[in-house]
Amino acid sequence: MHRELQRYYAQQRVVDLIYVNRSGQTSKRAVRIHSIDGDRIKAYCFTRQAYRLFLVANILAVAPASRHAAGW
Length: 72
Description:
Blueprint: H1 2-11, E1 14-20, E2 26-37, E3 40-45, E4 50-55, E5 59-64, H2 67-70
Antiparallel strand pairs: 1-2, 1-5, 2-3, 3-4
């Protein structure tokens, strides 16, 4: 997972993340990774229109986002 995130970060691609939040619920977000610091990533979330922190351990899947799905 870390290698994929690094690659998308280097390419500055918008990606879809599926992750488990603090409450244990799964969520899908279209994000652009801003930085990677150990086990955390800082990314701009197009859903919330703000920067968010994500724990790499809670990310279940990552894939390139389609323009239509990302809403950008």
